[in-house]
Amino acid sequence: MTQAPEGQIMSDSSEDRSTVEHLPSQKPALISDELAKIRAMVREHTSKDAKISIEFDGKLRLHVDVRNGEDVKVLAKMLPTLGTGIFHSIEVGATPHHPFFHRVSALIER
């Protein structure tokens, strides 16, 4: 037994533990596996030196950074056709802190 504030005694019995709220069961492996599949699907259609990243800022976003400007055009047209259309709202721009790369971004809908 442990001493509680104000002189009350707390018990470590199983009855007391049953009142503790448990966090919902999480399955991080399933999320990681799904993200790995998305990355692999995109990797099959990009150049070897492309950098692929996924970010979550309230929405799940895919970023593909490529060196060649022609790859940008191909990716922007191809992404919406992959994975039964999970990529949408395609944007093209500069890659932050990498002046020789171009970034193609898309929202991921699952």
Can you describe what's shown?
By secondary structure, the chain is an alpha+beta fold. It contains 3 helices and 6 strands; from the N terminus they run ββααββαββ. It has helices at residues 14-17, 28-43, 69-78, and strands at 2-3, 9-10, 51-56, 60-66, 87-95, 98-108. The strands form 2 sheets. The protein has a 4-stranded antiparallel beta sheet, covered by helices on one side. A two-stranded antiparallel sheet has the order 1-2. β1 and β2 (9-10) form a beta hairpin. The longest helix has 16 residues, at 28-43. It is elongated, with a radius of gyration of 23 Å. 13% of the residues are buried. The model has no long low-confidence stretch (mean pLDDT 84).
Set out the fold topology:
Blueprint lengths: L1 E2 L5 E2 L3 H4 L10 H16 L7 E6 L3 E7 L2 H10 L8 E9 L2 E11 L2
